[in-house]
């Protein structure tokens, strides 16, 4: 892409080229290996670093050195090969966060096989749908979760200790511990893995519809790792806390691949609990803390107690993704934790978690932005109604292109065609604009716009207003169906403890600050707002709740 743009006239400030209507990244391009035959595991293992400890279990202190990690990957890959796992086979990983999660992923991908992960909180029926779609030939899971895949016809490897009873659990064929003790074989079947081969099959969060399998290549992951190496200047003195789920693109790409390549230590929390996280930061002197916005907000609100109970002086950087941070949250965090830098990022499962980021303190002070385009990425802003490409400071759908963009949706040509065009542009579904300095601002999800009498109402705009109310802790705005106006904004509100805020007061508060068509016309109070692993509001769940209650009246 950079070579193609070398003869174009590109605005050095915004990165916009009028002749192509493309915004080009202002960051240094990432170097990608030229070899066609290369898997991401080999690429990661070839990165030079001086790191010693790769992963630490926060609860037990058990750890894997980098030497032990790569020895385990070789041993498990040998066992998988002996079991008949070959290039193109799908392997399911159903597990909470674990220091062994990366071992499984790296082993599977080293063979050219495909790793598909699923949320441990998913129901058996939800997991069954993913199994039916992805058709795994083997599964890794834990003793506590094995019941969720009962009835499946593939062999199972347990990640924890278990006395194998072949008469009771005939499908359990081994444990990861046994596989890790296997002497690696240089004679195992080695198929040539190409960068364009599929490496992972992650299922999108389904915030606006049915979950779809996102096909990610080895090249996509190599580009992701290269981007992280360029963005973060880390060494063996840096320690991450893994607070986000590894089954999700955020956790998988950052902790099962990226940090391994950089030689940093990762302290793994099997599940998130804020005080466990804070204790781990103190105990292991963590420097980098990846978070989603709700956790960061909690750290701001509880800052006084947190600083009394925990020594967080080691923290250097908080990396936040999932949704843009409001100005008051950033200012509040900087006030409470003045020595810590906040960096933000924007990405989708379909873009391997990469798209835009703030990489410096100065960039992070650009309030409301998710950052500048990531290295080697290009963007268009497109009018969703006319298809016309737009310019600086004009709002439309964000399209992305670059080495991180997925191959497509698994066995879903129609969905792929709607999302990826023939030139490789990913239609993100996010309404955005890019300003004169190349910063991307997310206005709302295109599919989540509320259509009131033909007007388009962005829920995120109303949510930002609601969250500015001193008695509102959290809020979500959804489209409520109405025969006369089409849809109108309805708010779900979490009140601050002790508050008696009424629905009318909420509606009046918003009405005084917005156009008449944007007014909230219905309010419900809840204990919490449902969100996915990356902190995005699950509007479809709230819409179901609202319409179900209405149908009973």
UniProtKB/TrEMBL annotation:
Q: Where are the transmembrane segments?
A: 90-115
* Positions of the AMP-binding enzyme C-terminal domain: 461-536
- GO molecular function annotation: ATP binding; CoA-ligase activity
AMP-dependent synthetase/ligase domain location: 47-410
InterPro entries reported for this sequence: AMP-bd_C, AMP-bd_C_sf, AMP-binding_CS, AMP-dep_synth/lig_dom, ANL_N_sf
Query: Which Pfam family would be a valid example here?
Result: AMP-binding_C
Matches recorded under SUPFAM superfamilies = Acetyl-CoA synthetase-like
The source's domain of life comes to Eukaryota
UniProt keyword Cytoplasm present: no
Q: For this UniProt entry, what's an example GO CC term?
A: peroxisome
UniProt keywords (A-Z) are: ATP-binding, Ligase, Membrane, Nucleotide-binding, Transmembrane, Transmembrane helix
What are its cofactors? Mg(2+)
Which family does this protein fall into?
Answer: Belongs to the ATP-dependent AMP-binding enzyme family.
The molecule here is called 4-coumarate--CoA ligase
Organism, as annotated: Rubroshorea leprosula
Q: What is the lineage of its organism?
A: Eukaryota, Viridiplantae, Streptophyta, Embryophyta, Tracheophyta
């Amino acid at each position: 892409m950079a070579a193609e743009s070398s003869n174009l006239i590109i605005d050095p400030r915004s990165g916009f080229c009028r002749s192509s209507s493309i915004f080009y990244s202002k960051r240094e391009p990432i170097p990608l290996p030229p070899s066609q035959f290369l898997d991401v595991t080999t690429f990661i293992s070839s990165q030079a670093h001086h790191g010693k400890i790769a992963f630490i279990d926060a609860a037990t202190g058990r750890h894997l050195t980098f030497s032990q990690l790569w020895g385990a990957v070789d041993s498990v890959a040998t066992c998988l090969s002996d079991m008949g796992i070959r290039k193109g086979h799908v392997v399911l990983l159903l597990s909470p966060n674990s220091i062994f999660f990366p071992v499984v992923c790296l082993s599977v991908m080293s063979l050219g096989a495909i790793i598909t992960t699923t949320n441990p909180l998913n129901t058996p029926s939800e997991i069954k749908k993913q199994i039916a779609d992805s058709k795994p030939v083997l599964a890794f899971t834990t003793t506590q979760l094995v019941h969720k895949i009962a009835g499946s016809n593939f062999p199972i490897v347990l990640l924890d200790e278990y006395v194998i009873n072949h008469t009771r659990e005939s499908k359990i064929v081994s444990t990861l511990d046994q596989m890790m003790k296997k002497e690696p074989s240089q004679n195992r079947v080695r198929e040539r893995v190409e960068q364009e081969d599929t490496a992972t099959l992650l299922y999108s969060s389904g915030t606006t519809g049915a979950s779809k399998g996102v096909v990610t290549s080895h090249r996509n992951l190599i580009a992701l790792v290269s981007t992280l190496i360029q963005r973060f200047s880390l060494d063996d003195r840096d320690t991450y806390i893994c607070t986000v789920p590894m089954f999700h693109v955020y956790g998988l790409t950052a902790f099962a691949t990226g940090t391994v390549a950089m030689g940093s230590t990762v302290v793994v929390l099997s599940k998130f609990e804020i005080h466990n996280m804070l204790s781990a930061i103190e105990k292991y002197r963590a420097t980098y803390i990846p978070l989603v916005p709700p956790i960061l907000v909690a750290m701001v609100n509880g800052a006084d107690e947190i600083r009394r109970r925990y020594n967080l002086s080691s923290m250097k950087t908080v990396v936040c993704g999932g949704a843009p941070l409001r100005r008051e949250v950033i200012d509040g965090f900087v006030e409470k934790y003045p020595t810590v830098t906040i960096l933000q990022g924007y990405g989708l499962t379909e873009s391997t978690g990469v798209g835009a980021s703030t990489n410096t303190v100065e960039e992070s002070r650009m309030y409301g932005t998710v950052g500048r385009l990531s290295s080697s990425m290009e963007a268009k802003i497109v009018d969703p109604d006319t298809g016309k490409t737009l310019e600086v400071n004009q709002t439309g759908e964000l399209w992305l292109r670059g080495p991180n963009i997925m191959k497509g949706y698994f066995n879903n040509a129609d969905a792929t065609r709607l999302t990826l065009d023939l030139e490789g542009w990913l239609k993100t579904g996010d309404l955005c604009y890019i300003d004169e300095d190349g910063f991307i601002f997310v206005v709302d999800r295109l599919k989540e716009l509320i259509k009131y009498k033909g007007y388009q109402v962005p829920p995120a705009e109303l949510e930002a207003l609601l969250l500015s109310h001193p008695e509102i802790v959290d809020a979500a705005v959804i489209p409520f169906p109405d025969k006369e106006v089409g849809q109108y904004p309805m708010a779900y509100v979490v009140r601050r403890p002790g508050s008696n805020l009424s629905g009318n007061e909420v509606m009046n508060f918003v009405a005084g600050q917005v156009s008449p068509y944007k007014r909230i016309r219905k309010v419900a109070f809840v204990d919490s707002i449902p969100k996915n692993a990356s902190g995005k509001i699950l509007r479809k769940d709230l819409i179901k709740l609202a319409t179900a209650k209405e149908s009973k009246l």
